[in-house]
Design goal:
rod-shaped, single chain, three-stranded antiparallel beta sheet, four-stranded antiparallel beta sheet, alpha+beta, 9 strands
Length: 237
């Protein structure tokens, strides 16, 4: 009686091991690349959510990528503006995997896990973002930091940085890696101490000019009113 039970339990365990080795699931937020002896084609990319089958390792293996948007930011960078001022910017980029096969082919050699591939891709994106921040040199400091009614040109700078990444040579590198850059933003802007002092002095000079102009206008208006009053008084007398 015990022998058939042991055989049954052994079969159940064996089937469970085979099921674990020969099946995998893909979530609706994921895409999977099934490789056969380390190689894959477009037919081996699975984007539909559900249960799937494969040959056991080492014949076939599965690498799954989260296709939702990801966020990565750069370190603070000191950049020059068009008026030869310095500004310290920290920026970020939102990206996602749009071509799982190309992404695997580009970064599959740096490790066996998704995290390894993502870290390698983020290094590429950081490098391109730092390079594209050179667009800051097209703007004056007063364009980025202003109290004018028209507002800051910071959104325009962000758009130009994104365009620099997604067009020309930058776009070909990203497309070849299966990556899409979605949004670029500036999340921190600071001024070096020397530049801050210069800006405050400039603002102080501007305020003095405005105050002097207002005082002169007030003096002229007072003189006009006084002369008008004296003229009226003479006429009355």
């Amino acid at each position: 009686m015990q022998k058939p039970l042991r055989i049954f339990v052994a079969l159940v365990v064996l089937l469970a091991i085979l099921a674990f080795m020969m099946t995998f699931t893909v979530r609706f937020t994921e895409a999977a690349v099934v490789t056969t002896f380390g190689r894959a084609t477009e037919r081996d990319v699975i984007k539909e959510a559900g249960l799937n089958f494969k040959m056991p390792f080492p014949i076939q293996s599965v690498t799954k990528y989260d296709t939702r948007q990801r966020y990565v930011e750069t370190r603070s960078e000191t950049l020059a503006t068009a008026d030869n001022r310095q500004v310290i910017l920290q920026s970020y980029i939102v990206w996602r995997v749009v071509d799982p096969l190309r992404f695997f082919q580009s970064y599959g050699n740096v490790g066996s896990r998704e995290d390894d591939h993502v870290r390698a891709a983020e290094e590429l994106l950081r490098a391109k973002l730092r390079s594209a921040l050179a667009e800051t040199s097209q703007f004056k400091l007063t364009d980025l930091l202003t109290t004018d009614a028209g507002g800051s040109k910071l959104p325009e700078l962000e758009a130009r940085v994104l365009a620099a990444i997604t067009s020309g040579a930058g776009s070909s590198a990203l497309a070849a890696s299966g990556i899409e850059a979605v949004v670029v933003g500036i999340n921190s802007m600071e001024l070096p101490e020397s530049v801050t002092e210069q800006v405050f002095k400039q603002m102080e000079a501007q305020r003095r000019t405005i105050a002097g102009k207002a005082a002169n206008e007030g003096t002229a208006a007072a003189a006009t009113i006084r002369n008008s009053g004296e003229e009226s008084a003479r006429k009355i007398r």
